[in-house]
Structures are given as structure tokens and as C-alpha cells.
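User: Sequence recovery, please. Input:
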């Protein structure tokens, strides 16, 4: 009998602008898509999606405490880091490569 499990590849990235090291899942599950449902802003959807994909990171606040991977923390990333994440996720490349007939 087939086993249903999370088979997404985990990638290790170092973000070029901030220098933050992240472990990130390359793909979305049905639950990830459901969590984005109802959000009108495409930018917010992207930030929420990234918070669901990052497993861990070494980002710290000014007080030296490790920051949680949440909307407010991910929202502090610069455009260069966000673009780097997008460019390194193969499921996004496949999705964006689909063109209408």
C-alpha cells in the first residue's frame, strides 16, 4: 500500500543580501495552498508561502535572539533575498514556465 508523506526536497540556501542561512522545502502541499486561500494581496501570499516553506534559519534580532520564521520576520527580508528564494525553488520555475496557449 502506498505511503503518503512529505517528499519535498530540502534545500540549504544562504541569502545574498542578509547572509541568513535557511533550510527551505522545495514544493507546496495542499495544506499550504489552503492556508493561502482568501488572501487578496499577492505579495502577502508570497510572504505567507515563504514562512510555510522555511524549516529553519539563523536570523537573529538586534538583541541576539533567534527570530521566529513568521510573517513579521520574513517581511523584513530585502527584495534581493526574496528573489533569490524564488529563483532557487524549482517548483516555482516549473509553475512560472507554464504559458497559456
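Assistant: Recovered sequence (101 residues):
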Amino acid at each position: 500500500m502506498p505511503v503518503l508523506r512529505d517528499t519535498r526536497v530540502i534545500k540549504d540556501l544562504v541569502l545574498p543580501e542578509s547572509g541568513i542561512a535557511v533550510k527551505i522545502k522545495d514544493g507546496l502541499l495542499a495544506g499550504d495552498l489552503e492556508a493561502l486561500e482568501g488572501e487578496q494581496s499577492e505579495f502577502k501570499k508570497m510572504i505567507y508561502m515563504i514562512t510555510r516553506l522555511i524549516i529553519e534559519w539563523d536570523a537573529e534580532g538586534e538583541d541576539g535572539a533567534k527570530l521566529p520564521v513568521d510573517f513579521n520576520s520574513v517581511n523584513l527580508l530585502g527584495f534581493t533575498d526574496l528573489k533569490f528564494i524564488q529563483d532557487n525553488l524549482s517548483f516555482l520555475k516549473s509553475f512560472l514556465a507554464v504559458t497559456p496557449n
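The first helix runs from residue 30 to 36.
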